[in-house]
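Chapter summary example.
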Amino acid sequence: MIFIDYQNRKPIYEQIVERFQMLIVKGVMEADTKMPSVRSLATELSINPNTIQKAYTILEQQGYIYPVKGRGNFVSGNQSLREQQKTAFFRKLRSLIQEGRELEIPKELCLERAAEFYEEGES
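The structure predicted for these 123 residues follows.
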């Protein structure tokens, strides 16, 4: 379910946050599903429980999960999360296109490469 890339420069807690965000947005983890406990996930990934707790705190602040006292954390049923992710994606895409313009990369080349990258993701 969750794996850590130790070669990645991104902090471990950020990797955990991103993996859970994607699982939740894609619907792999359905609303009101219990999240793994901090201790069990820390043991499974062989990392400090504080790292997991930090990731869970961020997920809670962003509305992806909610805590139930004495029972653990559960996946939120917030439907707007997917739309927020799409909006953030298009914001990044706009920024990349602007950067491409500044580098004088032709529109046709951008579209061609975008299509290639999109197709690579389907294999």
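To summarize the output: The radius of gyration is 18 Å.
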